[in-house]
Amino acid sequence: MTTAVEVPTTGGSGGHSAVAARAEGVVKAYGSGETQVLALDNVSVDVEKGVFTAIMGPSGSGKSTLMHCLAGLDTVSSGRIWVGDTEITGLKDKKLTQLRRDHIGFIFQAFNLLPTLSAIENITLPMDIAGRKADKEWLERVVATVGLGERLKHRPNELSGGQQQRVAVARALAARPDIIFGDEPTGNLDSRAGAEVLGFLRRSVDDLGQTIVMVTHDPVAAAYADRIVFLADGRLVDEMREPTADRVLDRMRGFDAQGRTS
Ligand SMILES: Nc1ncnc2c1ncn2[C@@H]1O[C@H](COP(=O)(O)OP(=O)(O)OP(=O)(O)O)[C@@H](O)[C@H]1O
C-alpha cells in the first residue's frame, strides 16, 4: 500500500506505486437533513494495477456506490478520485465521458450484447464506434483467452449465458482499458457458467495483466480475486489477500453477527 500523497503513477516503467485508481477520503451522501444517507463515509482505497480486487460487504454497505464513484459514473460529495494519473473529481462531463471511454471497461449483470451482431462484432463494437482500430495482435490474444472458437461468428442468442458474458468480458478487454469494473458480473449465471466467466477474468489478470474491480455478494466469486476490500455502513472495515471462499464466508458471518446489515 502506498501512502504517498502525490498523484499516483500508473506504472509501466515498474514504478513502485502501481495504482490504477484511488479514492481519498470519499464521502457520498444521498438526501439531506434527517433523511440523509451516508452511502460512503470517508473511504480511502488504492486499486492496485494488475490485481483482481473484489468489493464485498452487507447489502446497503456502499459497494455499488464505491464502484460507481471510482468509475466516474457517479459524483462524490467530498473527497477525491483518481483514475490513473487523472483526478476525475471535478472533471467536466465531456472529459469524464472521454476518460471512461478510453480508460475504463464495464461488465454488468446483464450482458448488454447487441442481438443482431456476431460475438466478434460485439467485441469490437466499442472501438468501431470510437473510430479506433483494434490492435490485431491484442485482439487475437483476447479472443484466444475467451476460448469461444468457431462460436465467434454466432449471435448472442446462439450462445449460452456464460458464453455471452465471456463475450462481454472480451469486449471490455479488447480496448485495453486501464481498469475493468464489474458489478455482480456473474449474478445472472448458474454456478458452472459463473465459474467459467470468473476463470476467464482470472486469466485476463494473470496472462494479460488486466486490472479488475468486481462487486460481489458471493464468497466463491470473491475467492477468484487477489484481494478483497470489505465495506460496512459506508466504511472500509477490512481487507483480505489471497482469499478462500471459506475465509470470506467466515468474515461475512462476522458482519451478520454484528447485525451490520443496515
Ligand atoms: N440514488 C440513491 N438515493 C438514495 N439513497 C441511495 C441511492 N443509491 C444508494 N443509496 C443508499 O446508499 C446506501 C449504499 O447503497 P449501495 O447500492 O452502494 O449498497 P450496496 O452495498 O451496493 O448494496 P447491495 O449489496 O444491496 O446492492 C444504501 O443505504 C442505499 O439505500
From TrEMBL:
Superkingdom of source: Bacteria
SUPFAM superfamilies: P-loop containing nucleoside triphosphate hydrolases (SSF52540)
InterPro entries in alphabetical order: AAA+_ATPase, ABC_transporter-like_ATP-bd, ABC_transporter-like_CS, ABC_transpr_LolD-like, MacB-like_ATP-bd, P-loop_NTPase
Molecular function via GO: ATP binding; ATP hydrolysis activity; transmembrane transporter activity
Record GO cellular component, one term: membrane protein complex
The entry's keywords: ATP-binding, Nucleotide-binding, Transport
Domain ABC transporter: 21-258
Protein name in UniProt: Peptide ABC transporter ATP-binding protein
